[in-house]
Fold:
Amino acid sequence: MTDPKSNPVNNVKPSFFRRIPLAFGAFFRTFSDVDYATRIDKLRQDIEPAPVPAKPPEEPPKAAPPSLKEATPDAALQLLSLLQRDARLIDFAMENVVSYSDTDIGAAARIVHEGCRKVLNEHFTIKPIREESEGSSITLNEGFDAAATRLTGNVVGKAPFRGSLTHRGWRASDTRLPKLTGSHDASVLVPAEVEL
Amino acid sequence: MTAPRFSIGIDLGTTHCALAYTDMSASDGEKTSHGVLDIPQLTAPGAVEAQPLLPSFLYLPHSDELAPGELGLPWSSEQRDIVGELARSRGATTPIRLVSSAKSWLCHPGVDRRAAILPSDAPEEVARVSPLDASVRYLTHMREAWDYAHPDAPFNQQDVTVTIPASFDPAARELTAEAARAAGYDSLTLLEEPQSALYNWIQASQGRWRKEVQTGDIILVIDVGGGTSDFSLIAVVEREGNLELHRVAVGEHILLGGDNMDLTLAHVVARKLAANGTQLDPWQMRALAYACRAAKENLLSDSDVQTMPIVVASRGSKLIGGSIRTDLTREEVTAVILEGFFPQVDASARPAIRTRAALTQLGLPFAQDAAVTRHLAAFLARQVAALDELEGFAGRADPGAGFLHPTAVLFNGGVFKSGILADRTIATVNSWLAAENAQPARLLTGADLDLAVARGAAYYGYVRRGRGVRIRGGTARAFYVAVESAMPAIPGMEPPVQALCVAPFGMEEGTEAELQTQEFGLVVGEPVHFRFFGSSTRRQDQIGTMLDYWQPDELQELDEIQATLPTEGRQPGEVVQVRLHAKVTEAGTLELSAVPRSGEERWKVEFDVRGQPTQ
Structure:
């Protein structure tokens, strides 16, 4: 985050006197440095109306675009709020951990871990997708649920597939989020606290 | 009115309430269809969640404290106060607006329980509520939750049972019934919590209980909840070939429970932190008590864990820098909880009694001795003769016994989720039994420690319709009024009092008794007070029995009772001769009335719950 290249100061427009050495430098370097010339060339193309980029060839010819569901922010904000209330997750993630010792971080992690666990247990029913222990060999018959099982590695041939289980997967079989009153402002994840 | 479909059981606890039900139309014999209602409650401002337990906390928010509309419940758009989980969590940061332990205040003889006194440390501008009001709010919340979940089976058309500690005196029972009526409960039965726990055990056994207990068994129910400890003895007898259960004795009211244990541990840990230079503020102290509870439950249920880390989170958003970390070790938990609350004492041990400073009367009268086992030893010794009168038990007990020998133990209350505490308690009882050459007591298992009381109460409503075994017993005390002896006044000496029995031990619901031998002259229009006593051991006294002398621990003084004769049809100041009439209502409350010698009138004699400082 202290990297000077990402510094927003670069957005300040250079003055006239600063532009003179910049122009000469660019002029000569375009001759000597092929990579630099490519970047200058690209800059020119971006300013001028760019040619239409070629479409990726993999795209299927006429598939109807999938109707994308818009996730409602309320449930997400509510979950964040629960994770903050019980697990102090936002406090934890927003803090700069660089200067703390692992002991301090570990102490805080206990609060976060215990709280996250509480939130998960109270508001979801989470079960592994595969009951087999990880590392054991698995046979996937034809028609297996591709959404609940991801094939990796040497994915060739056809079902039945044989492989070893690297992760059991998790499935939320039930969600029990608190109901919100109509006027509730879910964007307040945790209110500011003022002791009188 | 159609026959009720559901029997609803309500556990009105010191720290938690719960509602369970039995679907009587779908139940047959000992196979019942039952469940627990998840009670919708606010868990954060504007967020409603249904949970099986409703924390018995009431929060009285400031008018500017919450945004409008944040207190809505599914059945009501706007509430003034908060009941349940949010009340508890809000109250942790603003205790001056939190009402807690209303049930303990309800049976506190030193205060006026209809007066707005809670929260006891609230500043002037907070509109306080009475212990009675707080109970009304919890009961109302549960009724509304039921009606919301079962629009087709209205609450008031069902059979409702509310549980109370067995040790509740008649005034506290009457106040609970009054709270239920104020909460809109039309029909109501009261049931003692240890009995309810046993009903749950019977229900859960699905008929196998007949094999697990036999005639002659004496079941000791040990119920240690969040705020109170409650003991009962239930004997198993055989009558006409059927097993019958008789509740033969109940313990005294002991304000000692799981919350005291968590708080004690928190103080031990706080002292350890203070030794290292870390001081905790009140907020951190409460967070510490909460963390200690979780650590204690782990250490007391898993005997392999030696230490549990305890972290108290910072209040500000700096979590990592500001948190306080320490450990709770097995030795500390063992020393504080096991040896402090469940010491392995002899059967002759008795709870220590310290004389109180006068000021402590303002707060709750917590038990002075924290040892549950010492209270238990005292209870069993006091009840050594509890079975002498019971048919089938006469002559069975060892005449030399120093205490009543239970043959089976049933635990109830969240504290006994810890196997180590349950083991210690039963081992202690068994060591007393072994010392008197008696058989060790068996452990009855299978009851649900958190929800047994609510479930058992729901099952009781079903049993009352003749569908299962019922625990008999009637009142667990005999009641007396004080009568001043007719003797010449001696300056500087209070006239000695005699105790006149007005209601004998073991009066069953629906029975009445009238005191024929003694009449009292009541002055019309003026309240007349009587000192009132109860005894949990004097089983032999009949109505009209006059006691000139009794052991100090035989009779306990209860709230005064008072009668006021209305002036209608009489001259103020006129003296009317009345007899005292006692009735145990179907609901399970004791009703005393004054009946004039002539005429059909009847005036209710009230329990004076306005509270007077006891000596």
Q: What stands out?
A: The mean pLDDT of chain B is 86.
